[in-house]
Amino acid sequence: MIDLSGKTALVTAAAHGIGRASVLALAQAGAHVIATDIDEDALEGLSGASVETARLDVLDPAAIDGMADRMARADILFNCAGVVHSGTLLEASDDDLDFAYALNIKAMTRMIRACLPGMIDRREGAIINMASVASSVKGVPNRFVYGVTKAAVIGLTKAVAADYVGMGVRCNAICPGTVDTPSLNARLAAQGDYEETRAAFVARQPIGRLGQAEEIADLVVYLAGATYTTGQIHNIDGGWSI
Ligand code: NAD
Q: Hey, whose CA ends up nearest to atom 34 of ligand 1?
C-alpha cells in the first residue's frame, strides 16, 4: 500500500470528477491535500482535517503567484485541469486552439514552474499531468484541438522528467479513456440524444463500460508514491488503446 504520510499534495480542478476523487484518494493514503478549483462552492464539501481548499483559476498567472507559499509546500502536484474541445480541424477556430493551449499546456507549465523550486530544494517531488488517450497515443475522431494539446502534455511531461530526474523530481502523465464525470455527461447531453451517445461511448471501450473517477484516482496515488517511475505515459482506458 502507498503511504503518503507527511507529504503535501496540490490538486487542480479538484471540485469535480477525477480531481475530486483524487483529493479523497490522496488524503486516504495519508497526504495533506490542497484542493484547488474555480468552483468554490463545490470545494467547500472537501474541507477537512487533511484537506484544505483554495480558489485557483489556473488560467490566471497572478493567482498562481498569489499561492506561492502553498506551491512551495507541494511534494506532489496533480495537474488535472483541462478542457475538451469537440470537432475536427475544419471546425476548430484559432480561438479554440488558443484557449485549449492556455488551459491544457500553459497553465500546467506555470503550475510546474511554481512548484518545482520547493521540490528541488527537498530533492523530492512527484508531478502527475493529466493527458488523455486522445493524444499521440490514439487518433480520436472529432477531437482535433484536444488531441493536439493532450499530445503536447505528453511531450511536456517527458521534457520535465528528463530535465529534473537527477534532482529527485519525477514527472508522469496519465492517459484515461472515457471516464464518467460531470464534464463527460455535459458533453453527452450536448449531443442531443444522451442515452444513444452514452451507449456509443461505452461501445468504444473494449472493457464494456466507462471508467470511474476513483479508478483514475488510484493511479494518481500510485504515481505519487512510485519512486522508480518517471517520464512515462500511463494509459488507463478500458482497453481502448490495445
Ligand atoms: P470535470 O468536469 O468532472 O471537472 C473539471 C473541473 O475543472 C471542474 O471542477 C471545474 O470547475 C474545473 N475547472 C475548469 N476550469 C478551471 C480553471 N480555469 N482553473 C481551475 N479549475 C478549473 O472534468 P473531468 O472529466 O474529471 O476531467 C478532468 C481532466 O481529465 C481534464 O484535464 C480532462 O481533459 C481529463 N480527461 C477526462 C476524461 C473523461 O473522459 N472524463 C478522459 C481523459 C482525460
A: 82
Ligand 1 pocket: which of 12, 178, 181, 197 to mutate (most atoms <8 Å of CB)? Answer: 181
Looking at ligand 1, which atom is closest to the CA of residue 19?
26
For residue 180, what is its C-alpha cell?
464518467
- CB of 63 sitting under 6 A from ligand 1: no
- Residue 113 has a pLDDT of 98
pLDDT tens, residue by residue, 187-226: 999 988 999 999 999 998 999 999 999 999 999 999 999 9
Ligand 1 contacts CB of residue 223 (under 6 A)? no
Rounded Cα distance, 144 and 98, in Å: 13
CA 218 to chain CA centroid, nearest Å: 13
Residue spans of the chain under pLDDT 70: none
Q: SS3 string of the chain?
A: CCCCCCCEEEECCCCCHHHHHHHHHHHHCCCEEEEEECCHHHHHCCCECCEEEEECCCCCHHHHHCCHHHHHHCCEEEECCCCCCCECHHHCCHHHHHHHHHHHHHHHHHHHHHHHHHHHHHCCEEEEEECCCECCCECCCCEHHHHHHHHHHHHHHHHHHHHHHHHCEEEEEEEECCEECHHHHHHHHHCCCHHHHHHHHHHCCCCCCCEEHHHHHHHHHHHHHCCCCCCCEEEECCCCCC
Return the amino acid letter for 19. Answer: G
